[in-house]
What we know:
CATH superfamily of chain A: Immunoglobulins
Number of helices of chain A: 0
Number of domains of chain A: 1
Helix content of chain A: under 10%
Strand content of chain A: over 45%
Strand content of chain B: over 45%
Radius of gyration of chain B: 13 Å
Distance between the termini of chain B: 39 Å
Largest sheet of chain A: 7 strands, mixed
CATH superfamily of chain B: Immunoglobulins
Shape of chain A: globular
Helix content of chain B: under 10%
CATH topology of chain A: Immunoglobulin-like
Order of helices and strands of chain B: EEEEEEEEEEE
Largest interface: A-B, 22 and 26 residues
Oligomer: heterodimer
CATH class of chain A: Mainly Beta
Number of strands of chain B: 11
Number of strands of chain A: 11
Largest sheet of chain B: 6 strands, mixed
Number of helices of chain B: 0
CATH topology of chain B: Immunoglobulin-like
Structural class of chain B: mainly beta
Amino acid sequence: DTAVSQTPKYLVTQMGNDKSIKCEQNLGHDTMYWYKQDSKKFLKIMFSYNNKELIINETVPNRFSPKSPDKAHLNLHINSLELGDSAVYFCASSLGHSGNTIYFGEGSWLTVV
Amino acid sequence: QQQVKQSPQSLIVQKGGISIINCAYENTAFDYFPWYQQFPGKGPALLIAIRPDVSEKKEGRFTISFNKSAKQFSLHIMDSQPGDSATYFCAASGYGQNFVFGPGTRLSVLP
Lengths: 113, 111
């Protein structure tokens, strides 16, 4: 049973396209996140939702739009993809939005060509 | 004040040796300090965590040492094995505080 699952795992697309990454967690957590990991392995938070409400929105281009239809799902839609968007995107979840363990998905490898 | 500093950036250890990774933080509101382990192609996974009411926590070959006054904590991997080769992230969080990750340490354990 995968706790935090995200699809697709690999995504290769052309510049200018729009793509979505889906995420679901079955841990009963109320907080979900999107992180971006670049080639240097830095983990940078992009968004955080608590009970479907946006609580963290870091400096991210507005081409990135998260959507949380319910507490168990947090999807990431990216418009007009650019070469610099190539990275690994991790979905994660936790109970509460501070002071507790964050559980990560396996990652979605996005390559923009 | 939200930063967590981590060193070294990379570490090479012989099999059977001790791996030590250090982290430092500034925000005294942090009260939860986890370490995450990430293998290539996988997501980070919780390895071990400590809260500041204790100065040390040990789980198998992995030990966290915590120095509250110095605002530092470290991960010690005893009897390091090639299977421990991964990227390790320290992190910090607390009530009302966002989760903050260190920049990571790439550990290579040579057979």
